[in-house]
Amino acid sequence: MLTTDQINDLHRLYWSERWPIRKIERRLRMGWRTIKKYLEAPAQASAPRQRESKLDPFKATIAEWLEKDPTVSAAVIQQRLRPLGYHGGHSILREYVHSVRPQRKPSRAFLRMEPPAGERFEVDWGHFGTLDYQGDKRKLYAFALVEAHSRMLYLEFTHSQSFETFVRCHVHAFSALGGVAREIAYDNLATAVAEHDGRLVRFLPRFLAFAREYGFYPKACNVAAGWEKGKVERAIGYARRSFWPLREFRDLHDVNRQARQWLAEIANQRLHRETRDRPMDRFKADALRPLPVIPYDYRDTVEALVYKDLRLHFDGNRYCVPPRFVGRRLTLKADSSSVTIYDRVNEIVSYPRCWRRGQTLGADRFEAELAELRPAAKRSRAQQRLFAVLENLCSQAMLEAYLRDIADTDRALSRQLAGILELVRQYGPEAVADAITKASAAGAFGADYVANILRQQQAPRQTQPPLRLRDPRLNDLATDPLSLLEYDAFILDHGKESDDSARAEAEPTGSLHHEPPSGDDAD
User: Which of 351, 334, 332 minimizes the C-alpha distance to 342?
Assistant: First the structure.
């Protein structure tokens, strides 16, 4: 390939100086074919060099995958190509996939609809993460309803998307707006739509019953056609941007309290960018259909068995009922604020809704009631008679404690009570009350101990006369008062002495009272 200078010399000699080709051959040392080629086309394009791409062995596989799923991403294709031996980069793969991917059909244009007042509601759910109840996390959902004419918004947060919760949110929204629209638009919610085949829609029977009770016509959007209820879609996005950021919540009640305040002060008071009017001013409550006079009960309803520990289980917690319902199946109805337990149609007890898990509610109340009903915890007739007889003679708390201590021993309480009542008949209430007080203070529990104290009080020991010795001088001796406590302390401190040492100590004591032995005896 000639350089730029060689091409310039060739053209100068041939066109400017009119040299013949033979002379130019000798001067520039070129063949005539080369001279002719560059005279006809001075700028020669370099011959393209075919380079082998790392994707070449896999292009057929990529085409097969794109035919199966035109929306598959280049990252997924790269993951599947790695085990097949592809070691190239992601950029070259992404560019190639973009160049060979089947082009999507252009989006359809649709006509924006502005229904009249009271004609249409739009409903949808939004997911807003979780709420933390001291370590117990509950998913948080937002039910959104928009009145299509005015863009009036209703928002309620829940921990469930069940059918009962879904319907309850409808009822709350209808009450807040003061009526119901002629039709309500939904996407393919599992709580409303049972089957969607093309334009044929089959709603759930119980959802149709709810729609009939409140007098509205349900309308399901087509599959993957979110624009058919775009007003509520944008309302949920607006709530994510305007309500949710920089807020802290204690529980579900606090979330809904703040949501109601946000709706009243901001969402429904703002100047809407499409209608150029405030939703509150544009909304016409009188255009809605009236609500039923008596609202229907759409609380969560389950039947639960009452176990022997007075508890029935619901939503991860345990709720207690009176002892008489043990072994029976009761009806439990719950909403976001309360849990009420029924025996058929009769209300038994109601609790505030607990969103934590593993909690027990009402145990203190009904376990105390059970303790009062147990035979072992009730006073028997004998106990009642004893308390009635000794009512004003001794402390009731002391008497209960004394009987409890008797029951803690291995003695039969009924037999001991019968013995104490017999002592009352023999000795009188005052004497028995005094004896029980002394027995309690001494830690002697039983009717026999009380009887022993009474016998000692009724038959005290007679005082013995002093001993008179033959020698009058000995009778007149006066000794110092002697306390045996010192001897007891000495024995307790040093332990019991052996028999030999005891006899050795006794000998000098005896010599004080006897004459010394004579010499003959000593021998």
Answer: 332
> In Å, what is the CA distance from 426 to each residue of 233, 421, 431?
92, 9, 10
Q: 120-287: what fold?
A: Nucleotidyltransferase; domain 5 (3.30.420)
User: What's the confidence (pLDDT) of residue 374?
Assistant: 61
Confidence at residue 342, expressed as pLDDT on a 0 to 100 scale: 96
- Look up the CATH number of domain 300-373: 2.40.50
Please, are residues 189 and 143 in contact by the beta-carbon 8 Å criterion? no
What pLDDT, in 10s, does the model give residues 101-127?
A: 877 665 667 677 789 999 999 999 999
Give dist(CA 108, CA 400) in Å, integer: 88
What are the tokens at 187?
Answer: 């996407």
Q: Report the distance separating Cα 36 and Cα 416, nearest Å.
A: 141
The 3 state secondary structure assigned to 244-309 is CCCCCCCCHHHHHHHHHHHHHHHHCCCCCCCCCCCHHHHCCHHHCECCCCCCCCCCEEEEEECCCC
311 strand-pairing partners: 320
Task: Please check the confidence at residue 1 and state whether its pLDDT lies above 80.
Answer: no
In whole angstroms, what is the distance from residue 190 CA to residue 165 CA? 13
